[in-house]
Amino acid sequence: MRNKTLYLVSIIYLLIPNIIFYLYWAKAALSLAGIALLIHLLHKSILQEIAFPKCIIHLKDICIAAGLALLLTLASGVTGFAFQTMDHWCHNAKFQDLLQNDWPLRFPANRPVMAYYFGYYLVPAAIFRLAGDISLIAILIWTSLGIALGLLWICISLDRKWWAALLVLCVGDFPRIFKGVASHGSIQLYRYEQIGVEHWSNIENLFWAPNQFIPSLMLGGMLFHMIRHRLDYALLCFPTVLALWWAAFPALVVGLITGLLLIFQWVRWGITFRKLIAQIVLPSIAAVPVLLLFQSHPHPPENGLIWEFRGDIDNLLREYLVNTVADTLLFAFAYLIARRAGLPGISAVPFWTLICITLLFPLVRVGKVNDMLLRGMMPVLILIGCCLLYPLASQPLPKVLTILRGNTNCIIIMLALVLPAAVGIGRLYRAARLNYITALWSPPNTGFVAIPYDAYPSLYETLRQRWSKQEAEQYLGKPDSFYEKYIAPPPAKDP
């Protein structure tokens, strides 16, 4: 398989739930127009001459990606095989609601459409409706396929070095290692608050938000592939638009990064009006209905400068220094030391753009628990990890060892990049210790028990009873919104 084929398969994977969106989340006329536009954009993606470098993806790498994806899916808790974080109450309730209720989801039945990104859940849910029950195999295969595609993008961009691809997933957890070491010495660097400025690695986010892990992995890997090979950034516009229905914050952040890089590209290369319409404007039009759905909340998400929501400014400053500043200093030093060592690297403009985003994002709160930071940083950390590990992955192992032996700074930076993997290993160990199989020989009432899908009558009740009424109502739509009036009006009531 070639990387152009991987590009098209990734687009089709992200596209299918968007077609379902237009079929069920929009009225008939808009459905036909939207699906026609998506098919046209897919057709252009297939026919256009994409200047991908000739890169063959070997069967061995496909098998490794499939095996790793299956392992990560089982460990994540998605299928109820292994330990599940509390967010799986919500994931399971979405699957159950999509099985039991008409699409688009409304709660109660006469309320507006739920304003949430359901992209990840729709294909398994469609299979559930055909089968008449929850299918764990469908969830397993669908999730594994998405993770495998994302891993392949990262792997081929890092010269098929799987060790580097796995380390990329762990980038961002260095402050947690630092904080853990300090706590063992009875040193409290800062006090944890619900509205924080911590960012989590992608491997940590996998256990909380697998629905957002998949598009973050794919978009991050695709964008780095384009950065490394100096391809046209406009190629990422269509996949980013498709990912909005999967994960709003990661897609918006990738859209922001791609937009900034496109501006630099246009200044250097220029752009034709025809290309602007075909690659930028038309995909943007396809995103409008989904964006209108996101805007149809009764109240906008909580937002503002982070210190407006925190009274503990000293503690907030320490948290920012320990997390954001410590990590960005590590990233900057690693990048500069690799360049000084004469290793090949990527252009400075994309890297320093990512560093600026990492420094600025924690200063603004968007969402109940600062969701823009927690989820929006996922593709950013994928990109930064690829930038930092590419110089080493692109070289033969003997040359890397020679460089490390002769440069103490390189050794320190490499250790700092490897250490965060301890967090990911710890999560995988937890999954290996608490799962369906180990529960078979555990004493009664002490083993792992999977979260049920039908514990509550609806997604709304799950959120209200497990979290709060405020958490539940942030999913509800607004009765007089543009989306509710013109895109998905409620069905006419029987006389």
From TrEMBL:
Keyword ATP-binding found: no
Annotated transmembrane regions: 7-25, 62-83, 113-131, 136-156, 233-264, 276-294, 344-364, 376-394, 406-429
Keyword annotations from UniProtKB, A to Z: Membrane, Transmembrane, Transmembrane helix
Coiled coil: none
Protein name per UniProt: Uncharacterized protein
Native organism: Dyadobacter jiangsuensis
